[in-house]
User: Fold this.
Amino acid sequence: MARKFDRRDVLKGTSALALTVAATPLTAQAPPPAAVTDELIQAARKEGKVVYYTSIDLPMAERIGKAFEAKYPGIAVRVERTGAERVFQRIGQEYASNIRAVDVVNSSDAAHMIVWKRDGLLAPYVPEDVAKHYAPEHRDPDGMFASFRAGLSTLAYNTNLVKAEEAPKSFADLLDPKWAGKIVKAHPSYSGTIMTATFQIARDLGWEYFEKLAKQRIMQVQSATDPPKKLALGERAVMADGNEYIVFQIKEAGQPIEPVYPTEGTPLVIGPNALFKAAPNPNAARLFQSFCFSLECQQLIIDVGGLRSLHPHVKEKAGRKPLNDIKLMKEDPAGVEKQGDEIKKRYTQLFKV
Amino acid sequence: MTIALRAQLEDRRTFKLDLSVPLLLTFAALLCVLILLPISWLVMYAITEVDPATKARVLTLAQFRTLFSDPDLVEPLITTMIVALSSSVVCCLVAAPMGWLVARTDMPMTRVIRALVTASFVTPPFLGAIAWEILAAPNSGLLNKLYRSATGAEMDAYLFNIYSMPGLIFVIACYTFPYVFVLVANALDRIPGDLEDASSILGAGTWTTARRVTIPLVLPALLAGALVAFLQAMILFGSPAILALPAGFHTMTTKIWSLFQYPPKPELAAAASLPLLFLTVMLLRGQQMILGRKGYSIVGGKSGEPRLIQLGWLVVPALIFVFIVLMLPVFLPYFALLNAAFSPIATTLVTPATFTMKNFYFTFFELSTTHLALKNTFILGAAAATIGTVLALVISYATARKAIAGHRILGFLATAPLAIPGIVLGVGLFLAYTRPPFVLYGTLWVLLLAYITIELPAAYQQLQSAFRAVHPELEDASRILGATRLQALRDVTAPLLRTSVLATWCFIFVSTVRELSAAIMLFTSETKVVSVLIFDLKESGDLGAIAILGLSMLVLTFTVVIFINRIPGFGGSGLRNT
Assistant:
């Protein structure tokens, strides 16, 4: 299956391809679960480094890297962080020029996994933790990727600038003229989180919502990690989208920010991890992938990062609203994969950038 | 005499092997590849498209039809013109009086002022733009906070909004006015005092002389400065990407860049690059025409020192004016960056209680790309400066001494990149070097090529004027005494040119370190440079790390420039001429 699409050009081919892979083939066969063995650690140490392309907020990504380096001394983690859509473009551009730099990737746009898998770029590898603990919907049946993190794209407001009772409760509230010029918003051509959220909001509320929002003189930033930071600075009062985990980080650091889970439902964003077949450091890549899904790392991304984990043994941090209590929008990577380019185009027409 | 000398030269050539001709031809060929290859690919992509049926490239004008009919592309073009024109006017309004004050009046501290103008030139425009975000973002900007606390104005009230067209024009002007200042001040330095004396003797007062003599003489330089400022504003990428996108508008450079984002449209990007290229060529032609008419500017040979106008009590407002102008590109932004570097929140003033080394620690001990980016930047800066200087030296020798047939073409080729905006060159180089025969994308080489190409014109112009200043008779004497051309160059001309060569080296180094628009098209994860890393951090809003990196970048720049100038035997400041 994979070989058939081997030679497709990642840069150009996506829209032309029929979408079949999202549906699981009946003959799905994941490799057996892989434990972290001494041989693997030795082999990884010989390679000495692992290159991690990710869209996770930079300090968090570096923190994961440092935790890995502490556990496996002698293997350096090089973090290459940018927005998920840029990560996708970067890998496409590099592979089109025969540059094989990436070992492990994490993308907040799960649709990318569909494309990379279809193009035959990913290597099958199932860490023990994934096989043991992760629900089937959070691991690829062929063992190509698994859900490393979950996050939400929420609303939020600066509590110094907005009183709790006046804060928006829903997406519809943002269209009130009183918020004109006071909203900050991230971009779906940069951020996978925003791409995923835009897809879900457009599907559930219709594009009219964005048409009206575009008239609110929003401040347009790129990364989904940026709107909460802009709220913390006090640059804008309300954010129309952005990472819940950054809101948690900032709030728990004592800054005046409060998340809002819109009444229409909150977009759910799954960020899978995958290994590249042509990884320059294949053993270090496997070791890093195993580490990423270990309870240790999963607890770290909750405690320090404010992220949500799909590992059943993690403990939620007190003071954060449990995932089960939040009304979520339905996640649909296959849908995003189909409409991604159209969403970017439409968004640019509405918001002018 | 001359004939005899020629004959002797011919004689020598038959006995000793002169390597200069093959060497110069090699350089000419190199230049052709350097410039023509990316431009050819650019044009090729702009006028062709892939036929979906045959997979072959076929000629088409579809790109240009889209370019001039799609409002998403027409609007950025209009915006760019407005921004470039306005910032050019602002530059002239500020830089011309300042240049005059520094060059022609008895205002004190002129050396300091010139040094500070250099500092604003060394500051990368994108770093300045980020600093101005911290200062003048409508709600969180330090200046707006100050305004609100001083006047008790409401929470939403603001004095400045940097995310706007005027904001963008202002910030661009902040970092473009040095070009105008240097041109005007240099021209004023060169105007002989005799002419003004003559005017005074004939009974004209100080101001009449200024109006009737000095200003007309300096006007060509001012117009040239206006054109350079327009050009710089037009091809800038960083500042609009930082200030225009949040406000919801594009300029041409950011649009071209966005066309390369996924799903990439290289054909349209190539086509959109051509108007920029065309406009640049036109503007440079215009500049040449203006400067070409300067027949009346300098009449005598060596003449009296320019007479300084006594400012009297006007020195106070003059100094205040200059101080305010320098505060905008230098003092305020560096203050903002220093504050952001050591404050937990970039837009809150740091106090001893909140002082933090967190950003410093993060940037140097946690951020895994910092060392790579600093190393790449240093290697590329030093390599581009060295190779670029050598290249410029050889070419300017060839043209100044008319050493080979076709030296004029060589000179043209060396100045041609001036007409290629960085982002356009980036697109061209990307198209040219991601495919055989030269697969250089993903290596430092492609960035090196870009930097050398971009900096060559300025380096060439500097060294050419330096060569003109060294009379050929010295070289001739050396060759009569039996030296080959290369020996004469090494033993006679080179020592005389040391200061200029050094200044050129520093100039290229500084320009390379602050370059963003070509690098943003060409970097890969392994070939990241500091400017690109800062831009990355900007997009995720990590202002503290940006401040630390930006300041380290400046420390690196100044260390290298000072170190180079301290090498025994070299005097003079690094960046006198742009």
